Amino acid sequence: MAFPTPLSAFSFNEGTGPTAKSEVGGYSLTPVNWEAAWGTGTAGAAAVQRFTGPIGTVLSTWSLQFDVYISSLSGWSSILQVGSFYMEFNGSGVFDAYLGGSDPEAVGATLATGTWYNIAVTHDNALNQTKIYTNGSLTATKTHAAATAVPRFDLTVQVCGSTSQPMSGRVDNLRLWNSVLTLTELNAAAAVAVSLPGAAIRIWNGSSWFAANARIWNGSAWIGSAGYPLTSPGSSSLTEFPRLGGMLIGDPHNYHQTAYQQQIAQLDLAILGCYNMWSQGGKSPAQVVTEIKSYNPDILLGNYTVMTEVMTDTNDTATQDLRAKLSSEVGPGGVGDWWGYNAAGQRTNWSGGTYPVHDTNLTLQTTPDANGDRWPQWLAKRDNSLLISTAGWDIWYTDNNFAKPRIDDDWDRDGVNDNANSTAVQDLWRDGQRAYYDTALALQPSKIIMINADNDLDGSVFAGGATGPFTQYKNLVGAAFLEHVIGESWSVETWGGWNLMMGWYRTATANLVAPKACVFDAYLGGAPTDYQTLRYAFASSLLDDGYFSVSSNYNEVLWYDEFDLAGSSTTKWLGTATDGPQLTAWQNGVYRRRFAGGMILVNPKGNGAQTVTIGAGYHRFQGRQDAVTNNGQAVISTVTLADRDGLFLVKD
Q1: Measuring CA to CA, which residue among 253, 268, 316 is closest to residue 553?
Q2: Which of 278, 398, 591, 611 is least surrounded by CB atoms within 10 angstroms?
Q3: How many angstroms from the chain centroid is the CA of residue 35?
Q4: What's the pTM value of the predicted model, to 2 decimals?
């Protein structure tokens, strides 16, 4: 039995750091004292001190579920508080839901110390009725004589103790829904921990929950025993670093080859290019996905789509249906069709001939087809049918998320080219792209939509040449690919510097919804042995919580010593982050972030060579590619970084 997708779901499996992130909805909780806020959960980490932040919206009807462990009893203690609304227990361990008003309390079971309990509370506003469930059994039903409070879950919610009612204990697996769940649905949810890496199924043994190292592949997604799709450890639920990504859409698309599959499976996230009717070696996209996941069940795999352009080659059977559709429909005001044209009536190519494509008119000014769809909606439905639903993809990747058109086309077909620098034209463009994303999200609400963004998704820091701010892309999709941020002549770091590059990365990440998977891509195609640039780019990405991708022609998995300590460890050698994302320099303009297994340093471009004091307790790993920098020696006190360099140190 599946259960509905919650508005928010907190695993608290970060286990360290200044943020607990929801697996859905983009919500975050902040511990009051993060260095002492984490402890052992039901099967992973848990909150042991007060966290605050929003967990939802204004709800009159709702369901809450959480695991709670009481360490000691001493007066009233709050498990969750928002305004006058409390989930609490008294000095004897009696749990109640206090919902405000003159007849507020629903009293549940008595909780003992030293034991984990799964508690669910539902409130039906139409019936003015509250129910409490404890360990899968109904323990209280309260029909209130007077109206209860309407909780503002969008305000500062206090979890695991409140200012007025501190709690001695732990809270884990917190979920909120905007509906009243049945007992069957609540029990299904209770059986599945929120995004628990490697141990997603939980079993009640009669006295406590324990984790079972088991998951089931249903052909399209990993599921728990309740049938609810589980977030892969490759997403934001992954608490260990590094996080490695790969853009692998280039020819010859040899995804059927075992050696290539195994290389891909070393990554945490990869985007493939299984175009319409792709088949090699007698294998289908579904077979390829299954085989890659057999090597790494936790990898997130995505497939490529693009809405802004279509191949011009009439012999390309994979895109024949696209050209037919574009040519058969009617353009703006009854003029032409759905292709992009200039004022002279010629089809255009935004790349200037770099790619053999013609532009599409993705604005919503075209005449709808017989089903009421324009190009973005029609294409999303076609892509879903032919490219996404045909295999167990985790990610729907869509290329060319531009903040503005790359060319002055005659989008409204009035005989005049429309200036791409006009804010009105830019809005028309973004509205068209947004229509594709909205349709994709409606068709595949459980998949991650990833966009190749040339902007920070709201134009506040890096607008991609458009006039910011704008709203169409903000808080919409769960993942972004930042292409070639370093390494090309046109890369942001090349012409705009390190601070602008990092501002783009950080702001784009903030403007995503869960799982907030932002891929920081560096280009080393022209110099794959430029190990200094590799360190600099890789370490920069690790200052935040994104994925790192290094690319050449998008058809190979490049591998570097820093990924797995030259083969002497795993790709998770850094472990969990003990520092949160770093926004300010640490010493002499150098940035530092510490992890359970080591430390990374970044010296930004233009800062000059710098020597910083590390102290004892770290050593350089023994490298093979750059054995001078990575020489295996202990750090006695200081290290020196060249300008535009990074350094990876291993904790003793």
Answers
A1: 253
A2: 611
A3: 24
A4: 0.67
